[in-house]
Amino acid sequence: MTPDMVLISGDITQRARRSQFLAARAFMENLKPILTFAIPGNHDIPLENLPLRFFAPYRGFHRYFQSRREAQFMFGDVSVTGLNSTSRWRHVQGELSLQRIRPPLERSSKESRIRVVSIHHPMDCAKHVDEKNLIKNRDEVAQLLAETKTDLILSGHIHDPYVELSTQRYPEVQRSMIISVAGTSLSSRTRAGAPNSFNWIEIAAGTHDTIQLTRMDLAADGEFKPVEKKPDRFLKKESGGWSRFD
Length: 246
What we know:
By secondary structure, the chain is an alpha/beta fold. It has one domain: 4-Layer Sandwich (Purple Acid Phosphatase, chain A, domain 2), CATH 3.60.21. 20% of the residues lie in helices and 26% in strands.
């Protein structure tokens, strides 16, 4: 089965070097004609080259890898919006300007039935040690995502796969959204109990709107295969939020 899109949630490189961007670009070229898009991660901004970090943090990303940092795509009734949560002023934790992201989020809420948003820094995490990696203004972001009827929030950054409903961390936000943190597909910086992986996401918009996320782990034979546990499956409720189902 061929996907409609390959969406990469940042950290294309380790140190934002030209050779690393070019290698990542060559990898993306090999995926054609599949549509691909990547949002930048904190590792895609120079760390040690301070003049470049402060005055042209995305020069390498744009020159050697991809022309846009943010974009919106439509697949029938499904919209996919990539938003940049990185900042030249922050090395680890990200942040989003509510004023800047509101227009594309409002546009997606009007033009699509199911809305997917991808940011690099996660809105939730499985382990307490990763709390410091969550997006800085996450409470305000969660409220705006709910107001604009976001359904699925994708992120990366911490290399630790995790899927949960937003109501677990944001009980005050009325709309239940799906939060998914991806593992790392190619990097050697894996976490305990989490080998290289990616998420295969299936979205069905219709009489019953459903979203299924299947984690694909790298097996001993070098192939990515579904993990033994059941996929995470969600059904949209009449209220507009989401619930799990078997």
